[in-house]
Design goal:
Helices cover 76% and strands 0% of the residues. By secondary structure, the chain is mainly alpha-helical.
Length: 233
């Protein structure tokens, strides 16, 4: 039974890997279940036993990338506060810059899927944005509200969740410009790009200079020691 179970799980992972390649190459509309099955070297009927529709494949890729991220779960478990708000923004910046520095990784494939989806029917982008909103939106909003209560941030007009999306789109576009092997845009002082992006976003969402000065250095310092504790994971 265990060997059968392992075979089932391995087959499922091979299908997902093939689907990611197909979606990145051809977009959602240009990819068929038949082409995914061919890429995975299985029959279309066997594919349907694992994933009944093409949309189910999209949704599974999305869930796998988000739900299985231990660092994300750790961030989301932090109590709402100004410090947590800074850590969330630092985590977002670090996440996207890591993608742009390692373009062959699965996260880079997902970014390509996102861009292709925007130019196609938008289905994958909607699924991804909805998933991000469910996972991170409440944590960001709660941390922002605590920062306002602590007089560390200024509340602007509109809903706080929009501030999260403005931040998300800013850093995603910055990473996208660096995704090709030859970057589309070379930032000045690129070695300090993570700090510059963090400061820009934190100011943009309304955090005061004193709060940025108090919390950002600690967030950056904590990030520097993180690889030493998670590299073998």
């Amino acid at each position: 039974m265990s060997s059968l179970r392992m075979t089932h799980d391995l087959r499922r992972e091979l299908i997902l890997s093939a689907a990611k390649r197909c979606f990145a190459r051809n977009g959602f509309a240009g990819t068929t279940t038949k082409s995914v099955a061919a890429a995975a070297k299985i029959s279309e009927g066997l594919l349907f036993k694992h994933f009944p529709t093409k949309s189910a494949l999209y949704a599974e890729i999305l869930a796998e990338e988000c739900d299985a991220d231990p660092e994300l779960n750790k961030l989301l478990g932090l109590p709402p506060s100004t410090a947590t708000l800074v850590v969330l923004i630092r985590g977002m910046v670090g996440h996207f810059l890591e993608i742009s520095e390692h373009p062959d990784q699965e996260e880079a494939q997902r970014m390509r899927l996102m861009i292709i989806s925007h130019l196609d029917d938008g289905e994958f982008a909607r699924l991804l944005f909805n998933k991000i909103n469910e996972l991170i939106g409440p944590a960001f909003t709660a941390a922002f509200e605590q920062a306002v209560l602590a007089d560390d941030a200024v509340r602007g007009t509109g809903e706080p969740i929009n501030l999260f999306w403005f931040a998300h789109h800013t850093v995603m576009m910055a990473a996208l410009s660096r995704l090709p092997a030859v970057p589309c845009l070379s930032y000045a002082h690129a070695a300090d790009l993570d700090r510059q992006l963090c400061e820009f976003i934190l100011r943009g969402i309304g955090l005061k200079e004193t709060a940025i000065a108090s919390h950002l250095d600690r967030a950056l310092a904590a990030d520097l020691v993180q690889p030493a504790t998670t590299e073998s994971a």
